Amino acid sequence: MQAERIQATVAAQKSDEVRSALEKVWLSSRPEALGRLVTLRRFTDSLRSGTPDQDSWERALSAAHRLSGSLGMFGFSEASVCAAEIEALLAGGSTLDVATLARLVERMRGLLERTQASSGKPEQRDL
Amino acid sequence: MKGKTVKPALVTVLIADDDPIVRQAVRSVLDVSGGFRVVGEAEDGEMAVELVRETGPDILLLDLLMPNLPGLEALRAITTAGSEVRTVLLCSAISAKQVLEALQLGARGVVLKKKVAELVPALDAVMRGQYWIESQSVSNVVQIVQQLAAATPQPSQSQNRFGLTARETEIISFITQGCMNRDIAASLSITEETVKRHLTNIFNKVGMSNRLELALFAIEHGLVRK
Predict the structure, then answer these.
(1) What is the rounded average pLDDT of the residues B97-114?
(2) Cystine design at B109: which of A42, B39, B132, B183 (Cβ 3.0–4.6 Å)?
(3) Is A124 part of a structural domain of the chain?
């Protein structure tokens, strides 16, 4: 009984340590995440003004993919899902709807802003 | 005289993910959890294959979507090379079909990035010889395969029966359900020895060498009804 209590306490401490470690990584990684958002916004602008080259397309796809994976790790579920939607849209190729993409990128901007407003605290934790 | 304290050996881990943020986050989680030592980081599939060969880690954490060589192709190359590394997929999303394929290629677990807090329990389970699928430790992977197969679109019933007899097909059905030889024997009112003999014949006919491979093969080729 006592051993189980100790085990549970240790597990809770470990969980707090993991949470704290991830928060630190998020704070140091946030500029890079914002850079990915910039990539997506630039790509959306280039779509409005013409046909972007394949490299820009692939950079945007990579940015969306990375945002989806990393934001999920830090507990930003909503932003991660939004990035996954952007990724799916970009992966669709020539059928891409620019208005939908612009709306999703703008939504992503808002969600990332919220992470700043709460001092790097995720809006929802899955941990 | 005081006895020397023997520290348990650290589990060595190679992280393969194209995103440096993900690699840093995983490294941090493993560092604070203790018991693990990150021996390398790979930013694409080819580098993962190379570093597995060079560093011989206990665990490979492998992303699915990576440049140069996708995760499952990297896993195929690692398995083909005969590496003993235990591979755990760490991905944003994965379909039941991809989980099945990964298991067939020798993966020992799947952890979603949004559930990174499960990483340490998952690696502990895998190091104990178990599998980690859908947020839980699994001993009988064949049962999990059966559940996953139920969620995967199946090809139509195969016309090619691989020369299997009705009894052998029946036994394959039990295998995909995760049944042990004694259960099969009891259900069919035959001896365990007979079950073993049937299994040997089945393995020879379909070219598989263990029950998991057989279950995956049967599901893939529509040899059993769901």
Answers:
(1) 89
(2) B132
(3) no
